[in-house]
Specification:
Elements lengths: L2 E4 L5 H12 L3 E6 L2 H11 L2 E4 L5 H13 L5 E4 L20 H26 L6 E5 L6 H4 L8 H19 L4 E5 L17 H13 L8 E3 L2 E2 L3
Parallel strand pairs: 1-2, 1-4, 2-3, 4-5, 5-6, 6-7
Antiparallel strand pairs: 7-8
Length: 229
Amino acid sequence: MTTTLITGANKGLGFETARRLIAAGHTVYLGSRNAERGRRAASELGARLVVLDVTDDESVAAAAGTVEAGGGLDVLINNAGIEGRTPDGGVVDAAHTTGEFMHTLFDTNVFGVVRVLHAFLPLLARSDAPVVVNVSSGLASITGASAYVYPGVAYPASKAAVNMVTVLYAKAFPDIRINSVEPGYTKTDLNANTGTQTVEEGAEIIVRTAQATGGPTGGFFSAHGPLPW
């Protein structure tokens, strides 16, 4: 049986990914920063709740202890993330981007991924087929950024950093398949529900990459194939 941890899974893409993987036979640890919301989501899905705040070292370490006590880990999905919007739901543009705002997004989107990887890599190393899926964004592509105008700075930059982290960890741990995925512009609280895809559509590439046996590592993929860096 495959055991999977999904961060930020009490709603949105994480919740749908958990639902799909449970249906496929995975034992899923549903990571949630908010304990009550996490309990409701885990109860609805039949998942195991683990309270996990990716911005807090002690919380991450405690979650790793819980998962280890439960028998170990095969798949880690780093899904927790924030975009940071204005009060009316708009994108924070370059003129209004501050160092503090950048730090807040990087603390969750980048440092959070590293905290979780650091804590859970020893468990993944014991698995026969370990997998890490880092949820990135098409906005992370520097090649893509040269072809369109997007007013935000912090979110694309944070996800570009996630992609670099993915590549370097994949090289450092060749026995673990580690990839970044782009779910597409999905309607979730992350983007104030402005997305054009359903969570079912957005979760497709996450679920596919989590379940794949063999295949590439250190790559960046959408549901339609590899993406340019």
